[in-house]
Design a protein that fits this description.
Distance between the termini: 70 Å
Largest sheet: 7 strands, parallel
Shape: elongated
Number of strands: 32
Radius of gyration: 39 Å
Length: 794
């Protein structure tokens, strides 16, 4: 058997007969004959056309049968290949049983015996080329790959795009669909598409947004949306099924059954994609949160929507709220800055609409005074509940007295708490710690509050805590959270905060993770990040100090590299190697039920302590600490210049070593950590602000928020915290409204230790937060394996 490959998809098999062998002997490796022998050559070769086609540049003349006219139609052969499709562009001058040739290439004359009938053709190579160029111009997706006549396409979306371009150009064989002819095409069909039997991919006609019909109905506290897309006279696809296909991929070709695809316009594809972020599926019913109706209505502009008066009334309320401008309460005893007035208006509009708000301004921009202005504007309607960290409660009492003396601030405590809550009346402001909220959850949840404020609301970031569950049980007409760090560890914390102010806006936690958290945190999905920002934007207000406080003095941040001695470096390395050895044992014993992640964190903490001072790991160690030595030099310079400084560490025992050092040097300082009694706490703050000491030692968590320490113009961080936003909050104790001098922030980082790794992670954390909130922090969620890797690298 002899096989001749006529194309990548067509092979002709010839029986190796005696005739072929005789021809092979005659021709051998080829013959050279004089031009005068043209007629004799054709007459001699003509009988061979019964065996196989003859392609020649010599016109067959009378030697062949009657010559056919050639309109040079193109045949696009499409067939499954690999993971996608193969496209071959061919011409068939002698019909389907004759040779399949590349358009415009090869010999001009062909003669052969087809089904025992002699035939010949003069190819119109110029017309073949013209048709080929016309085809390529109509299929830009193919020409981007190459300008040849064969293409292997493995990506489904690209295959469908090419088929859509072909469908627009000409009718696909076997499909009852048509498209306008090319302007200068001949009257006969010039492009024919061929599929293998049973392998066709069918594209529905391009679907416009006008083919969609929506129906919106009230649904408890939400709205229910129904929709359908009319594909043709006999076929309709529901919105729920359509959205499922939209989620399968970013393209505009949506799969149906039996190798059929819907071709969407870019506009409709975008609208459906965007709409999917606002809808929740409740047992097969698609619902819209009332807080998202303006965004959904915008996506439906120009579409056929059948809605109730309730929907229209809500839309009208949103539009009117834009022009709602409440009066600043005359009982507010301070003059608000322009951005604070904007914040008050924003809060008032959301309270008017009945939706919750997240005021996430930078530390030091006056979130408390903006909140007090709102409370004053609504105080006559009923009592207000403010929940804050214990360390911040005193600040609320003080600022109420300064800025809103008409209010009656009450610290929640004492023995008869029930009577206290039951007797609350308008203008009463109950100030409650998060600890007390958890203890008195039932009592506080029984009360209907005019306003509920969660200050430093990151305190309820973990949905699984009793504190979070207690907060969720509260009932109030307006819910407000204030925080400079809406996220501290991962996006799930942001979901929990918004579940407090506007339950359901971000869907269930599972839906939120699928739509936003996983795509953003694991895949850096810009589209998911953009849609999350759009959903949050109406209910989250975030301003940076650099944007609104032009008069605030500059803040300079300096990284001070600590170079360990050889002895100290060897000590650190020994601690690191011991940690790795212990954790490898834990890995081997993993099946025993031990919590390896806790042990990894414990080893990490020990390593971080070793990077600060060997005595934090081995108290009796005589190895000198390079960080303590550098701290001493910096302090000497600051004291010589008459400066005051805040000194932060997350480790209380590190601060204790610093205290011992300062005591030996007879340097006065003030001190604050989580165990400092409340009365003593305020005394320490006042003493520092009054200039009774130049240094204030503060544990990061105890003094990172709620303090105004503008007497300091220097801030020293003795060790880096995982979350840079926590450090920023601590630094903002000095760099805030009321500060008149430039502030310098020093960070002491030990070289070639895990501290350097933490600092490198800081920028990664800030970048993602900036993209979502335009400011606040987003720290990475580390697995046990990642934490272990930090130890190995550090």
């Amino acid at each position: 058997i002899m096989v001749i490959a006529e194309s990548s998809t067509r092979f002709t098999f010839y029986r190796n007969s005696d005739e072929y062998q005789e021809v092979a002997k005659l021709l051998g490796k080829g013959l050279t004959l004089p031009q005068e022998a043209e007629n004799e050559i054709l007459e001699t070769l003509q009988p061979l056309a019964t065996i196989l086609p003859i392609l020649s540049n010599l016109a067959p003349g009378s030697a062949g049968a009657e010559t056919k006219a050639d309109n040079a139609p193109l045949f696009l052969q499409i067939f499954p290949s690999g993971n996608g499709l193969r496209f071959d562009l061919r011409v068939k001058p002698l019909g389907p049983l004759g040779p399949h040739l590349i358009p415009g290439e090869g010999q001009k004359h062909i003669f052969a015996t087809i089904e025992q009938q002699p035939c010949s053709v003069n190819r119109n190579l110029e017309l073949e080329v013209a048709h080929r160029e016309k085809f390529l111009q109509a299929c830009p997706s193919l020409t981007k790959i190459n300008h040849q006549a064969s293409w292997q396409i493995n990506e489904l979306e690209m295959c469908l795009q090419i088929l859509a371009e072909i469908q627009e150009l000409q009718q696909i064989k076997g499909e009852e669909q048509s498209a306008p002819e090319p302007p200068d095409a001949p009257s006969e069909e010039w492009l024919i598409c061929e599929w293998p039997a049973g392998k066709k991919i069918s594209l529905k006609n391009r679907t416009q947004a006008s083919a969609f019909k929506f129906n919106i109905l009230p649904h408890r506290e939400w709205f229910k949306i129904e929709g359908e897309l009319q594909l043709d006279e006999n076929e309709i696809i529901g919105l729920s099924d359509l959205l499922k296909t939209v989620k399968l991929g970013p393209g505009r070709f949506l799969p149906l059954a039996d190798n059929q695809f819907i071709t969407l316009t870019e506009d409709l594809r975008r609208r459906l994609h965007d709409l999917s972020f606002y809808l929740s599926d409740e047992k097969g019913e698609l619902t819209i949160h009332k807080a998202a109706i303006t965004s959904v209505a915008e996506l439906m502009t120009g579409l056929e929507v059948d809605c109730t008066n309730t929907w229209n009334e809500h839309l009208s309320r949103f539009k009117k709220a834009d022009s709602f401008a409440p009066m600043i309460p005359k009982t507010l005893k301070t003059e608000l800055r322009s951005y604070q007035i904007e914040g008050f208006f924003w809060l008032s509009r959301l309270a008017h609409l009945g939706f919750g708000a997240c005021l996430a301004d930078d530390m030091g921009l006056g979130k408390t005074v903006q909140t007090l202005a709102l409370i004053l504007s609504r105080a006559e309607a009923g009592p207000v509940l403010v929940v804050a960290p214990t360390s911040v409660c005193a600040n609320w009492l003080e600022e109420c007295g300064r800025f809103a003396p008409v209010l009656n601030p009450i610290f929640f405590g004492g023995s008869d708490r029930r009577q206290l809550v039951e007797q609350l009346k308008p203008y009463d402001l109950l100030i409650c710690s998060y600890t007390m909220l958890q203890q008195e959850q039932e009592l506080l949840a029984d009360k209907e509050w005019e306003i509920i404020v969660l200050d430093e609301a990151q305190a309820i970031k973990n949905m699984n805590t009793k504190r979070s569950r207690a907060a969720m049980s509260l009932k109030g007409k307006f819910r407000l959270i204030t925080t400079g760090t809406p996220m501290e560890n991962h996006l799930g914390e942001l979901w929990n905060l918004f579940n407090f102010i506007n339950p359901g806006l971000l869907g269930t936690l599972e839906q939120f993770n699928q739509r936003f958290a996983l795509p953003i945190e694991q895949e850096n999905d810009a589209d998911a990040r953009l849609h999350l920002r759009k959903i949050l934007k109406p209910y989250l207000l975030r301003r940076k100090k650099s944007e609104v406080l032009k008069e605030l003095p500059p803040r300079t941040e300096i990284l001070l590299q600590v170079e360990m001695s050889t002895t100290e470096r060897n000590f650190y390395e020994a601690v690191r190697r011991q940690a790795i050895a212990r954790l490898e044992e834990v890995t081997e014993q993993k099946e025993s039920g031990k919590n390896s992640s806790i042990q990894v964190l414990a080893e990490l903490t020990k390593l971080r302590l070793a990077a600060c001072n060997p005595r934090l790991v081995v108290p009796e160690s005589s190895i000198e600490s390079a960080k303590l030595e550098l701290f001493g030099r910096v302090i000497d310079d600051l004291l010589a210049g008459g400066h005051q400084a805040l000194v932060f560490s997350q480790f209380v025992k590190h601060l204790n070593l610093i205290r011992k050092y300062l005591d030996e040097k007879k340097i006065a300082y003030r001190y604050l950590d989580g165990s400092t009694p409340k009365a003593r706490r305020q005394a320490e703050i006042s003493a520092f602000q009054d200039g009774q000491a130049n240094l204030f030692l503060i544990s990061l968590k105890a003094g990172g928020l709620g303090l105004n320490l503008t007497a300091a113009d220097y801030v020293l961080h003795l060790d880096p915290w995982w979350n840079p936003a926590i450090e920023d909050q601590a630094s903002d104790r000095a760099h805030r409204i009321g500060q008149t001098r430039p502030v310098t922030v020093y960070r002491l980082i030990s070289q070639h230790t895990i501290e350097e790794k933490i600092v490198r992670l800081h920028q990664e954390k800030r970048n993602l937060a900036d993209q979502i909130l335009s400011a606040s922090d987003q720290s990475a969620r580390f697995s046990t394996a990642e934490l272990l890797q930090l130890i190995k690298e550090g």
